[in-house]
Design brief:
There is one protein chain. The protein is mainly β. The chain has one domain. The chain is built from one helix and eight strands, in the order αββββββββ. Strands 6-5-4-7-8 form a five-stranded antiparallel beta sheet. It has a three-stranded antiparallel beta sheet with strand order 2-1-3. The model has no long low-confidence stretch (mean pLDDT 94). The chain binds zinc ion.
Length: 142
């Protein structure tokens, strides 16, 4: 059996900018400079006020597990050896949600509201993925 490479994000346009910040180990999301609302996934205009003006604002890196699913039979062969694994939706303190994984938590130990913090997985010299681990210290979900 040949091994397949995992699919990776396209590193161009706004998505490329998002991952360029990740490569610098900075988690940044777009924030509207008119109404100050955060957004993710990257897009040109603000869904709240319609403005085209925005900035890449740095996230605290802290959030909580919002939901997840456990994959036991991956649809893509590159993920076969990782199963079972749990893609998670992380709700960041800024309010945006990110699909990722909690690297130090078995799927059976995931809980809604589990406090997590970002870590960076340097997959290749060009690609760094934001992932999460259980939050250290006394930080509590808000
Ligand atoms: Zn706005």
């Amino acid at each position: 059996m040949t091994s397949a490479a995992k699919p990776v994000p396209l590193l161009r346009h706004l998505s490329g900018e998002f991952y360029a910040h990740c490569r610098s180990h900075e988690l940044r999301f777009q924030r509207c400079t008119q109404c100050r609302s955060w957004r993710h996934v990257p897009r040109q205009t603000c869904a709240r006020c319609g403005a085209w003006d925005w900035e890449w604002a740095r996230s605290s890196g802290h959030g909580t597990v919002f939901t997840w699913t456990v994959v036991r039979r991956p649809m893509h062969p590159a993920f076969a050896s990782a199963a079972p694994y749990a893609p998670c939706v992380i709700e960041m303190e800024e309010g945006v949600r990110v699909v990722s994984e909690v690297v130090d938590c078995a799927p059976a130990d995931l809980r809604k509201g589990l406090a997590v913090e970002v870590v960076f997985d340097d997959v290749t010299p060009e690609l760094t993925l934001p992932k999460f681990r259980r939050a250290s210290g006394g930080r509590r979900p808000s």
